[in-house]
Every structure is written in C-alpha cells, then in structure tokens.
C-alpha cells in the first residue's frame, strides 16, 4: 500500500512525513471542502439556486472544521 502511495502522490507523502502545518492543513481543507460540496450539489440536484446561501455558510463551516482537524491529526 505504501509503495502505491509513493508512486501516486509523492508530494503528499513528503509533506505528511514531517507533519502538516496549519497553512498546509487549510490548503488540503479547501480541496476537501470543494470536492465535498461538488458532490453535495450533484446529489441534491434540485433547487441549487435556492439553496446556495446555505451551501456558502456550510462551506465556511466545513472549511474551518476540516482545516483545524487536518492540522491537528496530521
């Protein structure tokens, strides 16, 4: 498993070996949050324009939560 990880994502493996700083945690958090909300928008399907204000508020809540958790755990 680790050999595949080294081949596929060498930059991620290098950054995780020494730990993730708060700044790096928020970069990963932004990517994770955008992917999560794209999936939410695709699955919801109906009324995206009516729900955009809730998605924006949720985006910032997820972003902060993911950012601190990634920096804390890794």
Descriptive account of the structure:
The chain has 74 residues and is an all-alpha fold. The protein has one domain. It contains four helices and no strands. The protein has helices at 2-8, 10-17, 22-44, 52-73. Helix 3 runs antiparallel to helix 4 (52-73).
Based on DSSP secondary structure assignment, what is the total number of beta strands? 0
In percent, how helical is the residue content? over 70%
Number of separate structural domains: 1
Mean pLDDT: 75
Structural class: mainly alpha
Gross morphology is: flat
Largest sheet features: none
Query: Could you tell me the radius of gyration in angstroms?
Result: 15 Å
What's the SSE pattern? HHHH
Low-pLDDT windows of residues: none
Terminal-residue CA separation: 19 Å
Count of discrete alpha- or pi-helical segments spanning 4 or more residues: 4
In what range is the share of β-strand residues? under 5%
Short note summarizing the structure:
With 74 residues, this protein is mostly helical. Helices cover 81% and strands 0% of the residues. The two termini are 19 Å apart.
């Amino acid at each position: 498993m680790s050999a595949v990880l080294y081949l596929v994502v060498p930059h991620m493996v290098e950054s995780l070996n020494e730990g993730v700083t708060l700044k790096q945690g928020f970069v990963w958090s932004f990517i994770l949050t955008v992917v999560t909300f794209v999936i939410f928008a695709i699955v919801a399907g109906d009324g995206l324009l009516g729900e955009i204000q809730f998605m924006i508020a949720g985006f910032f809540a997820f972003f902060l939560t993911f950012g601190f958790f990634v920096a804390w755990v890794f």
